[in-house]
Amino acid sequence: MERIVVLGGCGTVGSLMARILAKRAAVTISDIRKKTPLWEIFQAEGIKLDLGGHNPNIIRGADKIAVAPSLLENEKILQLIKGKEIITVEDIIASCKVKKPVVGVTGTNGKTTTTQILKNILRVAGYKVPEHYLNIQGNTEFIPALQARLEGDIAVVEIGTFGKLGEIKKAATDSKVEIAIITNISRDHLPPEDFPKYIECKKEIIDVAQHIILNADDPIVASFAKSLPKDKVTFYGIESVKSHFEVFPEDRECPYCGKPLKYKNRFLGHLGDYYCTCGYRRPKLDVKATKVEMDKFRLNIADETIKLKTGGLFNVYNSLAAAAASLTLGINPEHIIEGISSFKGAAGRHEIIKREPKIIIDYAHNPAGVRAIMQLVKEETPGKIIVVNTISSESGIEGDKEIARILSNANIIIPASYSARKASDHTRAKIIHIKSSKQKMKQGTLGASKRQVREAIQKALKHAEKDDTILIIGEGGYKYAKSVLKGS
Q1: pLDDT tens, 280-303?
Q2: I need a surface site. Which of 41, 147, 355, 439 has the fewest CB within 10 A?
Q3: What predicted TM-score, i.e. pTM, was given to this entire model?
Q4: Residue 246, Cβ density class (10 Å: 0-12 exposed, 13-18 middle, ≥19 buried)
Q5: DSSP string for residues in 297-359
Q6: In this predicted model, what pLDDT tens digit does every residue of 444-471 receive, in sequence order?
């Protein structure tokens, strides 16, 4: 059997390279890291580990060396493997064919939860679904294509973007996406001047897939169907609600004439039953929810009420998207209903980690996500809402200001990030500052340090009573809150 050593195999891309290669060769991961959270996965898949450095004897004994992309320009690494045949991630994508149906999920919000609900449905139906087991937020570049090549019956890959044209198209093409889901598109994900390009980025997936699942309640997403054959598109959305919801509205313009849209019913932000004087209106729903309440709805494909373990209108939309894709794959409606109703929720999405007072972690990091979680928390909280805001918006200060305005529905806001502190004058809620939020800290969407999160949570706990909810939002909260609370 061919012997392949994967350098950098404990990293995000390297680990996937190693797992794919292990199906056809004897693979050893060589990495300077001393430990890996994927140890049990590697062991189960027959991958050997050389950690804490690169053993020269193992390198010499290899027939080929696979190198993670981050190490390809490392001179020390190149000298170490001089004379050996190198395998790149591009080589693996080209030589390892995808031999299973692939569903690609993209959009501004809801990608992760929609992906996980669909996977749960498929498992209930008896299918094996490839998992990358990586603790990452957003799946870009090589990750979807590599995940699609892992062992399994049907792959479901989340496809994100850094806002670069061609990025989603390449990821979807390399992943061999057959069915595409577009959950929603919000203008707040990037600076306003980049929004048209961002829309084009998300739209690219329809050029690759054979069947498109579109959120009909999103006027921009629904407009993508204009140039597509009717039998290539499935629309999903909400037909009617049984309970009253505070909507937190967000205006939208008609994607055709640019006039402000009118709404017969608005369900969540800019999502709803809309129309324009030019004639554009929400398309007819193929998969729809009726009699929607906070934690249950009636699904038309089986005319049965589904009870959600994790409520909220955003989870109704995520469930509908997963149901529509399942139908396209030919999954039995009974399995669809069981898969949705048994889904326990995604980590960091309305994740309740303590009760009395209730403490919720939510990865919401843009205005659309904050609207969604605030709608749910407001409905389910009998006491005060105390928000620990760790967000530093990708759309800059304007995004931070918009988040602050949305948080006016809270009783107390504790800005944990410098950006949240800077925008705090734009809310009507009571503000309680912490000293450490005066310090700037930003790495991508990570806006707050562990120290800032700790100080903000400690402050929140002092002001919380039994019936209150402490809502911790943003990547900083998602990354640090559990360890902070465990140590407190």
Answers
A1: 999 999 999 999 998 999 999 987
A2: 355
A3: 0.89
A4: exposed
A5: EEETTTTEEEE-SS-SHHHHHHHHHHHHHHHHTT--HHHHHHHHHT----TTSSEEEETTTEE
A6: 778 999 999 999 999 999 999 999 999 9
